[in-house]
Design brief:
Helix content: 25-40%
Radius of gyration: 25 Å
Largest sheet: 4 strands, antiparallel
Strand content: 15-25%
Order of helices and strands: HHEEEHEHEHEEHEEEHEHEHEEH
């Protein structure tokens, strides 16, 4: 049954075989039914002996039916609830990323970026295995890998480490540039700190969850956006390899308003949020619709697929033109209107 729901290209062996386990026989775990008094939501038991489902009216439901799931009668629904509770909305705050950590601070990165030094220090001190052998100098290896990742964003990065100050009982993040200058986290740019936090998250094997980010390109030079997108791809699970310590089961969802990001993401990863008019029970309303590009794996589910019009996407990606054929302002000139810029625009020859 997994093959009917997992439509994106992947390896059955070893990825899907390691990611999907067990099977379901019978009906769904949660279902809805139409009644005279309105729609009802039914939470079915998945014990061997079955049992009557728990049903509640959807109109006056004070909370989700998953909140009533328990390990005795609804273990699968309980697992679904715990999975949804693990979903993380990362809202990385530069002020939190700049803070040093006490030695007793939590060693997991918070949704706001708190405890970056403690998390990286813990990763650096954790022994790792390579081909069944404990790797030598794990701290140097981890710091080098993070520094190399950061160098994709900033060419001047040479080294990175966590300073353990026993006297003040603090952990402080430092970066060394190619001139040998040590820079503490408090002087680093917002974009550098966000990129660094994501690089640390990518190294953390315990983060098997859905990760959501808003506009990850903020604070990033447009020329470095591909480095950011490559990092986000590496955070997500590799569907060509088995799930394991070095390939956690993770998914990444980002939203963006940047044409530079939209133009460089994989075409089958792009969903365009649109408002579409709909009618139900005699009432007109607008609903959000997530439309995809044609000729991608997302179109396999034709019943639920909405295709984004190419014209809408091209208007978004192309350089903006003057509306309604208005003449350019004689007192000013846009950058894209400069004669020396025209040959280098994405679509040469398009002028205002």
């Amino acid at each position: 049954e997994a093959s009917r729901h997992i439509l994106f290209p992947h390896k059955f062996t070893p990825w899907r075989k390691s990611a999907v386990r067990g099977q379901r026989r019978g009906g769904p775990f949660i279902s809805t039914e139409e009644r005279v008094d309105g729609r009802a939501i039914r939470l079915h038991q998945d014990r061997g002996g079955g049992g009557r489902p728990f049903a509640r009216s959807a109109t006056d439901l004070p909370r989700t039916v998953l909140s009533a799931a328990n390990a005795a009668e609804n273990p699968t629904a309980l697992l679904a609830r715990r999975e949804m509770q693990s979903w993380c909305l990362l809202q990385l705050e530069p002020s939190m990323l700049r803070q040093p950590d006490e030695l007793t601070a939590p060693t997991h990165l918070g949704p706001n970026g708190a405890h970056l030094p403690a998390t990286l220090y813990r990763l650096a001190k954790t022994p790792t295995e390579t081909n069944g052998k404990i790797a030598d100098k794990p701290a140097a290896r981890v710091y080098s890998q993070i520094a190399n990742r950061l160098a994709g964003l900033i060419d001047d990065v040479h080294d990175l480490w966590i300073e353990h100050d026993e006297r003040r009982e603090l952990l402080t993040l430092y970066i060394k540039d190619r001139q040998g200058t040590a820079l503490p986290a408090r002087v680093l740019s917002d974009g550098t700190l966000r990129f660094l936090a994501l690089a640390v998250f990518e190294r953390a094997p315990e983060g098997q969850q859905l990760l959501c980010l808003e506009e990850p390109e903020n604070g990033i030079h447009p020329g470095r956006i591909p480095a950011m997108l490559n990092l986000l791809r590496d955070i997500a699970t590799d569907v060509e390899e088995p799930i394991g310590f070095d390939n956690p089961l993770r998914q990444v969802i980002v939203n963006t308003h940047s044409p530079a990001v939209v133009s460089q993401v994989d075409d089958d990863s792009l969903l365009v949020a649109e408002l579409k008019e709909d009618r139900r029970d005699g009432h007109d309303f607008k609903r959000v619709c997530f439309s995809c590009l044609p000729a991608t794996w997302r179109t396999k589910d034709q019943a639920r697929t909405s295709i984004v019009p190419k014209g809408k996407l091209l208007v978004y990606l192309n350089p903006p033109l003057l509306e309604n054929g208005q003449p350019p302002n004689p007192k000013s000139r846009r950058v894209i209107d400069r004669p020396d810029m025209q040959p280098y625009l994405p679509l040469p020859g398009i002028k205002a």
